[in-house]
């Protein structure tokens, strides 16, 4: 024998009811069963509200019950042949007439006792189970209607009545013996010895089902609802949450205690006592496995689920007068109990200097008052401080019985929180080792849940959640590269990279699960594309509140660089090829580094200089290991090197500049390269990385942009104008050629001063042989004194730059492991 219970949403309308019938037809071949139904979705709530309306003299209760009556009629009229409808419609009509009389009484005397409310609350189930019995007969089932008030006996605590199991069990067994056929049972309702209607409290229909399962020693109890079982975490906050296949009763209790709405612990008690397995199944996805709750020993995962309670406050009770004084905690908790404050979490360190309790925020003030009143004398004498209240807190808890046998759960939990910069305000773990709870700030809740979910469930994979501003040449190449490499990274490096936000200067779009990278749309083509607004982009990134979030800036925009402080403040890492932030004021450069350090997040910008070549990281390593930079000599512009080396082969100057742009070597506006600004920025950044107090004014820059080209707005027009200067550049080339030299645009930094400009170099110079987009950097340092350290290779272009950005992102994955 099985007891199968369907919740209100499963029978909310004709379509859903048909789904329920399909499920029951399938059950038919699997042995004996009885069915428990809730009221049609939402009916009981409306009836109880209508009773309140009637009590306050609000006559619209009449409209509400009319509407509900119609709803019940409608189901019968659409699901039953006309000739059979009459008795069922009459039954409905009679019930609603009773209700109307009842409400009229409430309306007149302006009173509605808990006893009356229980009676009102019984109509929903009585109607649904009766109608469904008749419909099931039409489906060929030998259905027998059972009003559970006949067989479940309770005391008269209306609203939340206590069941007398010995009487109820007998009555249930008798009814089943005497009435063959498929019993169709009303959930939620029961009656007292005197025949007064009572209800079984929150999730009462589940409880009814468990009572029947226990009384009949059922083989199984199935709870059919609108979700596919108990999930590892709240899916609204943790997008990667999934259904837990099996839980022990205790685990299910712990998880449901924390607000997993699927089951209510008390309802399981009767089934649990008899060891009856409980299945949670989804009426709308019947093929889904669902969750099995039973007595089987816990297996597999260390932790089964991560749950949370938001909106709590933390009370700190402290003072020297508390140490080694017997009876303090009795007084604290006694005063809270007297004030009817429910304590959610308790923590006291063995120093006894403070006791910390978490309560619902709505009860925080009451709690503070109660404790302060109790300790009035101690507070007056300075033996105890006033109770501190920290608002806007939340509890996150890792739940699982396997913790008992395996050390390491708390290590993993607090490592994950720490690495994601989630501050923990209090911790509690009982010796049952079923749950470790931590109090965190409410603003960190989603991040904490995701971090824990990743740490315990995602097959040990680290997930980086990227938000990419600037889907241009480099941004697009980056997306492509991640798409190609992602399988290998997941397989060999346990690293999963998802992109949740994309933007260019016009549009932005977001995707909770991450865009499909092998087919990633342009921001303007994404399904929910919105006009780009940087402020909103950052807010949205912040709100999505993923752990391991990375802001990737692939623009050349000053505006975007201005937002870095806010990003780092939000404990979000930054990876960028954009040089604007690091080449602004020295204060800003230092502030960003300080902030990243303070917030414990990384700010990586290897591609600021020489694209993917390891220049910045190498210089940082030199500095960290105690070296000192004496001189830097470098060709730092891929486009300028391309231009001046290709130009030797006879093409006009303006033509080679155009080619450099087409090859993706130049800045979005190639005049940033020609003017020396880009190289100026790079040598400035290198100087700063070499711990020199370098300002942009300390750099003398020779611009190669002809004066009449400076102010032209349109890039194409600039190219036209540049053509008129081809001869001047040819002359420069000719002069160098005659001396057997080559033109190289380079930068030098020595004695706190930097110079950027065009040089004519003979064949003895290391830069003489550079080709194409090559960069070359010579570091002369205290250690590399006689011969400089040399880094050389292509230093511009979509692929080498995107690869450098990608490498920084992967580095983040290693840092945050
Ligand atoms: N091209 C190269 O070889 C290298 C480039 N870089 C740097 O990479 C960055 C990107 O360069 P490219 O991809 O070549 O430029 P691009 O012009 O192709 O792309 C820039 C993208 O940023 C977007 N954008 C601009 N301002 C924006 C704003 N305020 N908000 C949102 N989006 C905005 C644009 O719409 C465009 O999609 C630049 O900072 C550049 O200096 C660094 C090393 C090498
Ligand atoms: N435009 C730059 C590339 C980016 O840093 C160059 O030409 O080197
Ligand atoms: Na680099």
UniProtKB/TrEMBL annotation:
Occurrences of domain Aspartate/homoserine dehydrogenase NAD-binding (ranges): 470-606
Cross-referenced Gene3D superfamilies: Acetylglutamate kinase-like (3.40.1160.10), Aspartokinase, catalytic domain (1.20.120.1320), Dihydrodipicolinate Reductase, domain 2 (3.30.360.10), NAD(P)-binding Rossmann-like Domain (3.40.50.720), VC0802-like (3.30.2130.10)
The protein's Enzyme Commission number: 1.1.1.3
UniProt keywords, alphabetically: Amino-acid biosynthesis, ATP-binding, Kinase, Lysine biosynthesis, Metal-binding, Methionine biosynthesis, Multifunctional enzyme, NAD, NADP, Nucleotide-binding, Oxidoreductase, Sodium, Threonine biosynthesis, Transferase
Pathway, per record: Amino-acid biosynthesis; L-threonine biosynthesis; L-threonine from L-aspartate: step 3/5; Amino-acid biosynthesis; L-lysine biosynthesis via DAP pathway; (S)-tetrahydrodipicolinate from L-aspartate: step 1/4; Amino-acid biosynthesis; L-methionine biosynthesis via de novo pathway; L-homoserine from L-aspartate: step 3/3; Amino-acid biosynthesis; L-methionine biosynthesis via de novo pathway; L-homoserine from L-aspartate: step 1/3
Enzyme class: oxidoreductase
Any single biological process term in GO: threonine biosynthetic process
Reaction catalysis annotation: L-homoserine + NADP(+) = L-aspartate 4-semialdehyde + NADPH + H(+); L-homoserine + NAD(+) = L-aspartate 4-semialdehyde + NADH + H(+); L-aspartate + ATP = 4-phospho-L-aspartate + ADP
Domain Aspartate/glutamate/uridylate kinase: 2-282
Taxonomic superkingdom: Bacteria
Domain spans labelled Homoserine dehydrogenase catalytic: 614-810
Occurrences of domain Aspartokinase ACT (ranges): 316-375, 396-456
Names of the cofactor(s): a metal cation
Single GO MF descriptor: metal ion binding
Subunit structure: Homotetramer.
UniProt-listed PANTHER family: HOMOSERINE DEHYDROGENASE, PTHR43070
Record-stated family: In the C-terminal section; belongs to the homoserine dehydrogenase family.
Function description: Bifunctional aspartate kinase and homoserine dehydrogenase that catalyzes the first and the third steps toward the synthesis of lysine, methionine and threonine from aspartate.
UniProt-recorded name of the protein: Homoserine dehydrogenase
Native source species: Indibacter alkaliphilus (strain CCUG 57479 / KCTC 22604 / LW1)
